[in-house]
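does this look right to u?? iron/sulfur cluster version
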Amino acid sequence: MEQYAEKQVSRRRLFGALLAELGNLVLPAADADTVLRYVRPPGALEEKALITACSRCGECINTCPRGALAALPPEEGLAMGTPYLDLRQNPCDLCLECTRVCPTGALRVVNREEARLGLARIDRGRCLGWQGTLCQACKEACPEKGTISLMDASRPRIDSMRCTGCGFCIEACLADPPAIKLTTGSSVSVPTTQVGKEVGKVD
Ligand code: SF4
Ligand code: SF4
Ligand code: SF4
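got this back:
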């Protein structure tokens, strides 16, 4: 049984290595921005580098204590098997365990202070608070206290200097689909001032 499991793991690794190699051949021709479609774990390299560096070993996915990570399915092409988060279902604690076990450097080890998955933005047209209903679910769910504030006691705003992109507000949002999205596309942990176009603004 153990041997069978080992064989399965090595097959997965081999397949992952082949995909990564293929990514190396194909992706340099692509515009990196066109592949920024998924929310990646903290510490992830930029998309093109992640797709080529990740061996699809699944260590990060198996390690995540929240079960928040999954592998992209075959229909995602070259990104298949690489880790992503569906924040509506599973936000990220930023425990950084996934970055510690990654054997290839596809997820870099980063400090808790640096780590972020993106930047949450509120769609005011869909937000209940901005439409005049008392809600506040996002503010209550945000673990980074002071990041979400309420204008006139009802309309939420997100401080982009503090937001880590953890997604707890997205999970909690009472609008369906949620009125909050992660906007940078980049999960690379960089200083706040380098992430997204809206940095420094309050949503
Ligand atoms: S930082 Fe922790 S909670 Fe977030 S994806 Fe990695 S292991 Fe999961
Ligand atoms: S606003 Fe708060 S809960 Fe939402 S992603 Fe940012 S830090 Fe997380
Ligand atoms: S939880 Fe969603 S609907 Fe409610 S105030 Fe926050 S963004 Fe708006």
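The chain has two domains: 2-101, 120-194. idk if thats expected tbh
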